Amino acid sequence: MSQRKVSGDAGRATIRDVAEQAGVSVASVSRVLSGNYPVSEELRRRVMKVVRDLDYVTNAHARSLAGGGTPTVAILMDNITGAAFAHVAKGVEGAATLRGWLSLVGTTGNDPERELALVNLMRQQGVAAVVLLGGAYDQDEYQLRMARFARSLDAAGSRLVLVGRPSLEGDVPATTVDYDNEGGAYAMASHLLSAGHRQVLVLPGHAGLSTAQGRLRGAQRAFEAYGVPFVPGMVRHGPYDDQHGYRAVEQALRDGPAFTAVLAGTDVVAAGAMQALRAAGLRVPEDVSIVGYDDIPLASQLTPQLTTVHVPYEEMGRVALRAVADLREGGGGRRKGIDGDHLVLGTHVVVRNSVRPPARP
Amino acid sequence: MSQRKVSGDAGRATIRDVAEQAGVSVASVSRVLSGNYPVSEELRRRVMKVVRDLDYVTNAHARSLAGGGTPTVAILMDNITGAAFAHVAKGVEGAATLRGWLSLVGTTGNDPERELALVNLMRQQGVAAVVLLGGAYDQDEYQLRMARFARSLDAAGSRLVLVGRPSLEGDVPATTVDYDNEGGAYAMASHLLSAGHRQVLVLPGHAGLSTAQGRLRGAQRAFEAYGVPFVPGMVRHGPYDDQHGYRAVEQALRDGPAFTAVLAGTDVVAAGAMQALRAAGLRVPEDVSIVGYDDIPLASQLTPQLTTVHVPYEEMGRVALRAVADLREGGGGRRKGIDGDHLVLGTHVVVRNSVRPPARP
DNA sequence: GCCCGTGCGGAAACCGTATCCCATGGTTTC
DNA sequence: GAAACCATGGGATACGGTTTCCGCACGGGC
């Protein structure tokens, strides 16, 4: 009676167990399972029967160690419950699954420490790519931190992908997938201006956030293009949540300035703004027009349905994954600076029912 | 000049590189890093310096293989973008991160084949637990399939956790985390009935879905308790999306029967219903009352804010992870049938502004 | 001054799989 | 008929860690 391993004990069956029970060598089992080596029909049958009997699955860790293994992509974001992020994640995950890749998910809660810890954790896992989602605060420090991440991942044969974040300056091994944030805001503001609005309450988001800054710039440019003075006092910064939308509108209604339209930084902010207007007895869009940004499902679930900027979040996720997959298959040669490092997708205004020309007072 | 490995080549540094450069043995490096063995301060300093210099991280696959490794939990769901699922996922992920666990995510797209493939994939990964989210169709076949999954995972030292799904009959090694679905529906329907509504359009969801069935049963029981006949013709089955809510209401308004309130199966369905009512020129709640289920953020973003049933999704996620973590730490002894295999969390009605007593015609 | 206990570092045996290299037996070719 | 060849299967090794077992050096107590 051998000391090796009590048959039928807990824990999973190994390839050795299969080999032993089938009366073949370990190498043969491996070959049957991976199928990249000619084996006789007889051998295949014998092995597969034992595999089924033992309900054997290969150990992914061992396989990875030995060189094979399925590639894994890590998705890191602030918060899974954000609709926009969730759509990007869906895009990444879907594209990953399509080519047999695995997806890991981690949330940073907007904490640089946790971000660092997670990137390191992913590096340990030997992921093929780390996808970082969402806007960034504190630009200068951000650039340095990301550059470190990028080089560190690159050294480990992995790749940093920035989605919806500012791309990196200098010669940094990273891929950026972005959308025309400022252009979308420009178009959205133009839509309001061309409807005749001149007094627009602007809620771009948190002042330090890169996406908010871009959306504000786009709006400003539209005002300039229309020759309408852009009054800084009409801008209210704050987080991307409905409470901020509510409070900002509530306060503006109480303390001024007067406005005939609200340009919200996201659909969620617009939802809050809409509630505040209703609470004050104002009708949308008859009394006040309102527009959002992102085009998440919420936008079409509100009444009236929200005119907003469509951002192809899910496709950004797919594109991000495709980019790293291509890079990985395209050959190991570092193709620094080649186009494909920075992809920009278009945005467009989706016209629904939340905008009307301003009422003549 | 050794053939071993060209220093500075691509690929990550190994523990051997660190040992060599620090002039110590591999074992010492391992001991410094895992910290479960006394080492001198001098050694620690020397090793850590090289670790930083080389930007070394341990190889998680190798570590797992050797016995250690960070536990991983797999979250499998239909669709990441569903708000309710996302909250559960957040709960699981948060609790996992809290104890240093990793989270894998996969989406099944409601395809049993993909579910099977994913469960196998997770088994290969050696995950500590597989968490399956969401209601189930086709009860009898579901029971068999899950029982197989459960046993298969159990044999591999892993654990199946069902969240918001029917629990398994018989002696199956699985954990279920559920909420009082039927009770919530009972309370919600009672709320409408006690406000005086007698003609209620019921949109419970897809006829074959376990959650929809529970919500319908709860509503029925409430009608019985109030002595109000439950008219099957007032029930409209369909998917959990806003289009279904819209169409069902639109059609009922056109073809009858008459109703003074809508009992929607989810908040999203309620949002669609609300739109249809508005489109028909009816006011909510003055003309028609409406209630939802789930209490996702959407519920409080609609106007009027939706009265709905709060389901503690995020906590369910946390509870699910805690359950498997406890099981794993509590000792290997299979404690079949012990309480803790089936956890049920409470639900409660959240009263907002979408219900009024019916207008006297 | 010797002995023994203690503390720490090194060598080696695993973990489970993929793959390289070689052995074997039968078939083809000259 | 012998040599070369093909197809197939087995043994050994590498992957990058962790951990056990051992031995060495050092210091204190008698």
Task: Write up what this structure looks like.
Helices cover 45% and strands 15% of the residues of chain A. In chain A, helix 11 (267-279) links the parallel strand 8 and strand 9. With 361 residues, chain A is α/β, with parallel strands linked by helices. In chain A, helix 1 (15-22) packs across helix 2 (26-34) and helix 8 (181-194) packs across helix 9. Chain A has a 6-stranded parallel β-sheet with strand order 2-1-3-4-5-11, sandwiched between helices. A 4-stranded parallel β-sheet of chain A has the order 7-6-8-9, sandwiched between helices. Chain A contains 13 helices and 12 strands. At the A-B interface, helix 4, helix 5, strand 2, helix 6 and helix 11 of A face helix 4, helix 5, strand 2, helix 6 and helix 11 of B. Chain A binds a DNA duplex (30 and 30 nucleotides) through residues 14-16, 24-31, 33-34, 36-40, 43, 58-59, 61-68.
